[in-house]
Predict the structure.
Amino acid sequence: MSKATLVQDGKSDYDDEIITVINLGEFGDNIEDYKLHSAVYIDDDGNLWFGEEAEEYCGRDAPDGSRQLMDNIKHWLSLGQVDAKVDGKFNPTDISVTYADIILAYLTFLTWSANKALENLEQPTGGYPRNLNRRFAMPCLSGADFKEVQYRLRKYLGEAQILADTFFADLRKGLPLARFVEAVKLLREGGPREYKFVREGITEPLGVAGTLLNYKSEHSHDMVVMVIDVGAGTTDFSVYRMHVDPERDISIAVEVAESTDGVTEAGNHLDLALMGLILQACGIDPVQGIPDRIQWYLQRHIREFKEELFDQGSILVSLPDGNEASIKLGQFMETPGVLDFKNALDKKMVGILESINKDWIDLIGSSQKIPYLTVALTGGGASLPMVRELTNRDITVRGKQIRVVPTKNFPTWLEETHSELELDYPRIAVSLGGARKKLIKQGGTATATAGGLTGAPVYDDPKYQW
């Protein structure tokens, strides 16, 4: 699912920000919702369909599951497979396209949906420009992978605005793949373009961290916080030092060096675990092959089944072939897939703390100002019980016992100024924090604390201090 937030700064530093969660789904999916289904389908006639319509047309063309749509598009970026060709099960045409082309097509649809939603808002003088400044969130990757994905997304988002304007009247009517491919070719013929309205690419935890502090607060805050963003395709981690002291005119938030990382164990990992349990209960061995009709049915509905299982404690699933599976939550929680998911998150969490500068670990618990490590959970998986267990316990790092506590489910400053966002906060935190004027600098130059345990933090770059 894709989300977008518009943040308009106040007229002065003392005015509240105006925060608007954009209803992407209202125009993209014909649903009054802020979420946009990140799915693309190429039909038998060679037309591109997006979002909920991608599911609808895929089900129409292939009720037996012989055709598939492309879902969870962001996950492909983490797997490094964007230049691979899209095969026949996803692409029935003789037009050669890569997953990178499909990502661009989806971003075109996302941009179009955002443009339409902005048109529906109360307009400022002159209206919202098409080249409105934008940031984008991306999974936690390392080194060259991070730079490559950031480069691609910046380029694709710039191109997506031009393509959204080009196909403004066609994106909900079935966009011919051939026309789209030709338009991209023409767009790129003149060589690389600079899209200045596409600004920073930020990691998802950094976007979340941007929501945690009110920089205009009259109260002091001093904490070391680990953000864990549990998405559909990746789970991303990062550690931040945040310090606001209005009496001393201190307003600092920095990313701790070498603390950003991610794992591919995420919501889709649990989807696969539940799918396996359902198949097992129905006597279907995946090794022997899953009938296309059943595989398609489960892929389309597995997230609904998972949500119902956690909400109700049990589910009864009826497959298209007449088989039924009764699954209880306790049974699911003991499956190898769920245990592997929990262990992977725990291992990564402790591993990151073991890898950062030891002075940060010495700081936690050695002062009444920072008595514990605070953990903020966001993303669609933030409420999962095995995820929440990570936030209220004692852990051992470098031989030192550290108390871990959760943040408030909804930051106080948002509670006071935008209480209507509370229900949706876990899913919109990345886009909300990423759109704020004061953006935490990423790149990990905060390497150590200095001056002893009571001394002020030292940062290599003065740009980190506002």
Notes: The longest helix spans residues 143-166. The longest strand covers residues 235-245. Residues 447-466 have pLDDT under 50 and may be disordered. The chain is about 35% helix and 20% strand.
